[in-house]
Design goal:
Layout: H1 2-27, E1 43-44, H2 51-60, H3 64-73, H4 75-78, H5 90-101, E2 111-112, H6 115-123, H7 136-153, H8 163-166, E3 199-207, E4 217-221, E5 224-227, H9 239-247, E6 250-256, H10 258-266, E7 278-289, E8 293-299, E9 301-303, E10 309-311, E11 321-323, H11 337-348, H12 384-389, E12 408-419, E13 424-431, E14 440-444, E15 447-451, H13 453-457, E16 461-469
Parallel strand pairs: 1-2, 5-8
Antiparallel strand pairs: 3-4, 3-7, 6-7, 8-16, 9-10, 11-12, 12-13, 12-16, 13-14, 14-15
Helix pairs in contact: 2-7, 3-5, 5-6
Length: 474
């Protein structure tokens, strides 16, 4: 009987140990979940290869402008009476998670569960498995496109006595709905507004033969996907090199030029028919509209000669502050002959924008007052990088208002991928919410610790999240 009792206690002890182990795996140590250390943010439970989602959420939660936009975007839902359906909206689910991760929600748990985001994405027809390797950049596109779809699905509620709104041509009968009870809320403009990651690219085509410029074409983007150009021996690869390579001009052959065809037709008598004149065009990209929140994706996927995918591990140097003025498209206007000559000389000494080759940005391209200081990357001849890397330093304070850059961005988060193309792990460096200066955190799923700015800038970045800051000049 004594032996039987001891065996029963052993079985119960084993079951209790198994239960405790299961609780630990699912929720982490019970004592650790009671209170989060001061100055840190909650981690996220890994639901099975969901580090790609956890790292992206931590990066998005470090962008205050995106959270404010979600708050305005979801304001319409708070006026509706169907509260139980809030969980169906991606914007509401995402806002709750980002507020908790930025310590705006009252929670003391050090580990949160983001499975609700996977559920709402599945409801939006996105089949994302939590047990397969996924890509954080791809999920970023899924979130932004789903938010745009949600915005486009919202009906406009128009008062039947609002004659001005009813006379607008864009309002159709399908967009008009009427309420018989209660107050009629005004239609807010934020339903039409784009999310803060939304930007526009300009594509400029110029004929090499007649120098005729085609109409500028605009394309939208929510992230800049930059390829890493071939490195030059002895020179570090910088973010500026990637950006210049992105906007570098390229030749497009065998393009029909309407202007050359017209000129050719004018020189032929008797109305003889002529063929369309095909020439070579020079194409160049610029940034027509810079977003409030800038997401930069560094393409680390490459292919071997045998067609197998490879990962590029080289370090791309970036800084805490990023100036985008020289990449901004400006509408061409009348220029004096001296300005044209200066522009021609600057183009001749700038290898980074000719023939599709990446090179070091020249001083001629830098905006006034930003030549040495605002170089977006390490430079062997300038001490600007050390100035920009110094914690808590805001460079606008050192310059007159008239020389401040218009498009200055501050680094908010860095997503890093460790491993190869077939397996790996995502981690995030992000700013501590509400911290003055440059208090950074390193986050890997449930693990959260403090980090230095030097450690952040030394990381092999995959995604960079910048947010635009405004100087006194604006």
């Amino acid at each position: 009987g004594r032996h039987r009792a001891m065996r029963s206690w052993g079985v119960l002890g084993g079951a209790a140990a198994a239960l405790a182990a299961g609780i630990y795996v699912l929720w982490g140590p019970i004592t650790g979940r009671k209170r989060r250390r001061r100055g840190l943010v909650p981690g996220l439970l890994n639901l099975g290869n969901t580090c790609f989602m956890n790292s992206l959420l931590q990066g998005l939660s470090s962008c205050p402008s995106f959270i404010r936009w979600l708050e305005e975007f979801t304001a319409q839902y708070r006026t509706e009476q169907e509260k139980p359906q809030e969980h169906q909206y991606l914007s509401v689910t995402l806002l709750q998670l980002l507020r908790a991760l930025s310590c705006q929600e009252v929670t003391e748990d050090d580990v949160l569960d983001a499975s609700c985001l996977l559920e709402v994405l599945r409801m939006n027809r996105w089949q994302i498995s939590s047990f397969e390797e996924q890509d954080a950049h791809e999920l970023f596109h899924v979130l932004t496109s789903s938010l745009e779809d949600e915005r486009d699905r919202q009906p406009r509620v128009t008062h039947l006595f609002d004659v001005h709104s009813l006379e607008q041509p864009e309002i159709t009968q399908k967009q008009i709905s009427c309420r018989t009870r209660g107050s009629l809320p005004t239609v807010s403009n934020h339903w039409k507004s784009q999310h803060p990651f939304h930007g526009r690219l300009t594509s400029n085509m110029v004929c090499k033969h007649c120098e005729h410029q085609s109409p500028v074409r605009f394309d939208t983007f929510d992230s800049l996907s930059l390829s890493i150009p071939a490195a030059v021996w002895g020179r570090p690869m910088t973010l500026d090199h990637c950006l210049h390579h992105f906007i570098s001009s390229e030749s497009v052959k065998d393009v029909v030029c309407d202007n050359c065809t017209k000129i050719q037709a004018e020189g032929i008598l008797n109305g003889q028919s002529i063929e369309n004149q095909r020439t070579t065009f020079v194409k160049q990209l610029k940034l027509g509209k810079l977003p409030q929140c800038l997401c930069i994706h560094l393409q680390r996927l490459s292919w071997s000669n045998q067609g197998t995918p490879l990962k590029r591990h080289e370090h791309v140097q970036f800084n805490e502050f990023l100036v985008m003025d020289i990449y901004k498209y400006r509408v061409p206007g009348p220029k004096s002959s001296q300005e044209q000559l200066s522009r021609k000389n600057s183009e001749e000494i700038t290898p980074g924008i000719k023939d599709g080759r990446a090179g070091k940005p020249s001083d001629a391209e830098q905006p006034a007052g930003t030549k040495p200081l605002f170089m977006n990357g390490a430079s062997s001849t300038s001490s600007s990088s050390s100035f920009l890397m110094s914690p808590g330093t805001f460079p606008l304070a050192a310059f007159p208002e008239c020389r401040a850059p218009l498009y200055l961005y501050r680094l908010m988060a860095v997503v890093v991928h460790h491993g190869d193309m077939h397996s790996g792990h995502f981690v995030t460096f992000r700013r501590a919410p509400g911290a003055r200066g440059s208090q950074w955190l390193w986050i890997s799923d449930e693990s959260v610790r403090r980090a230095s700015l030097h450690e952040v800038l030394a990381a092999s970045a995959y995604l960079l999240f910048y947010e635009r800051v405004h100087g006194r000049a604006q």
